[in-house]
């Protein structure tokens, strides 16, 4: 048997040495997964011991995290908008910043709920499925270029009881689409190509570059999406795009250059401009 508290202390030290931010929190998350317990369950086990199987599982997870693999891909899921999403190496990890997209959708459409929602570059499906959870009469379509990411989104829709209102398809942005939508959501790749090698190891090594690389200036996907938006958005519809730090002015100018009406540049909880809201004139 293995002393639980000693194992947790050792793991925290190991992660701190590896440069992991919040090493005790990260170690606790992995330990809870190793012993199949929530925080209450972990508290009840403190002062006790781990079985050999639990100890081995925990050590393996700590080894991976010390190698800078994200905790979300180690344990295979991440919470977003109070919903639990499966996460794999084929998808971006849902982040709190992206919840600003859902907050903005609710602010603009709470009194006029959308009937048809489109999510471009759906990944885990977190934006689409969070929106469907808030708009119970809506149907949604999620599109992703990666077949494996689309599989993850489809699985998440089923796990969350939303498969009957969500369709996931493999495709390149709007290339295969003909219909119009009341609400369009997208968190496209927006990292400039040359910046990717300088990203945190958790991102650069373990998240799919297909979902990160936005071209030379990070704006290539927006150029494609903005151009087709008038054909995909219903009159009076709303489109919300997540973007990177400092990209707001360039995106505003880009949207206006193709006759889109900029409604808002919404800030995230850290105070950074994060979401562009547009309609078409």
Automatic annotation (TrEMBL):
It comes from the Bacteria. It is an enzyme of class 2 (transferase). One of its GO terms (molecular function) is peptide chain release factor N(5)-glutamine methyltransferase activity. Its EC number is 2.1.1.297. S-adenosyl-L-methionine binds at residues 121-125, 144, 173, 187. Residues 8-76 form the Release factor glutamine methyltransferase N-terminal domain. GO terms for biological process: methylation. Residues 115-190 form the Methyltransferase small domain. The keyword Glycoprotein does not apply. It catalyses: L-glutaminyl-[peptide chain release factor] + S-adenosyl-L-methionine = N(5)-methyl-L-glutaminyl-[peptide chain release factor] + S-adenosyl-L-homocysteine + H(+). Keywords: Methyltransferase, S-adenosyl-L-methionine, Transferase. Pfam families: MTS, PrmC_N. PROSITE patterns: N6_MTASE. Transmembrane segments: none annotated. Methylates the class 1 translation termination release factors RF1/PrfA and RF2/PrfB on the glutamine residue of the universally conserved GGQ motif. NCBIfam families: hemK_fam (TIGR00536), RF_mod_PrmC (TIGR03534). Belongs to the protein N5-glutamine methyltransferase family. PrmC subfamily. This is Release factor glutamine methyltransferase. It comes from Acidisoma cellulosilyticum. The gene is prmC.
């Amino acid at each position: 048997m293995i002393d639980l508290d000693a194992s947790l202390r050792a793991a925290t030290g190991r992660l701190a040495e590896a440069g992991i931010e919040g090493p005790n929190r990260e170690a606790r998350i992995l330990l809870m997964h190793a012993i199949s317990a929530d925080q209450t369950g972990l508290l009840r086990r403190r002062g006790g011991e781990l079985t050999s199987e639990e100890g081995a599982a925990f050590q393996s997870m700590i080894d991976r995290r010390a190698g800078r693999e994200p905790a979300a891909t180690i344990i295979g899921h991440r919470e977003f908008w109070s919903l639990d999403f499966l996460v794999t190496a084929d998808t971006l990890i849902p982040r709190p910043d992206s919840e600003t997209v859902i907050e903005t959708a609710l602010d603009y459409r709470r009194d006029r709920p959308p009937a048809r929602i489109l999510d471009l570059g759906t990944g885990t499906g977190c934006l689409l499925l969070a929106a469907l959870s808030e708009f119970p009469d809506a149907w949604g379509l999620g599109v992703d270029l990666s077949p494996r990411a689309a599989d993850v989104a489809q699985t998440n829709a089923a796990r969350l009881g939303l498969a009957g209102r969500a369709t996931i398809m493999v495709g390149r942005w709007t290339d295969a689409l003909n219909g119009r939508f009341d609400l369009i959501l997208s968190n496209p790749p927006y990292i400039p190509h040359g910046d990717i090698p300088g990203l945190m190891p958790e991102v650069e090594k373990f998240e799919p570059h297909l979902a990160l690389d936005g071209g030379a200036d990070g704006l290539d996907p927006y150029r494609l999406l903005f151009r087709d938006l008038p054909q995909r958005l219903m009159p009076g519809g709303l489109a919300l795009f997540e973007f990177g730090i400092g990209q707001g002015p360039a995106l505003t100018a880009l949207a206006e250059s193709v006759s889109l009406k900029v409604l808002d540049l919404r800030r995230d909880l850290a105070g950074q401009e994060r979401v562009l809201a547009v309609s078409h004139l």
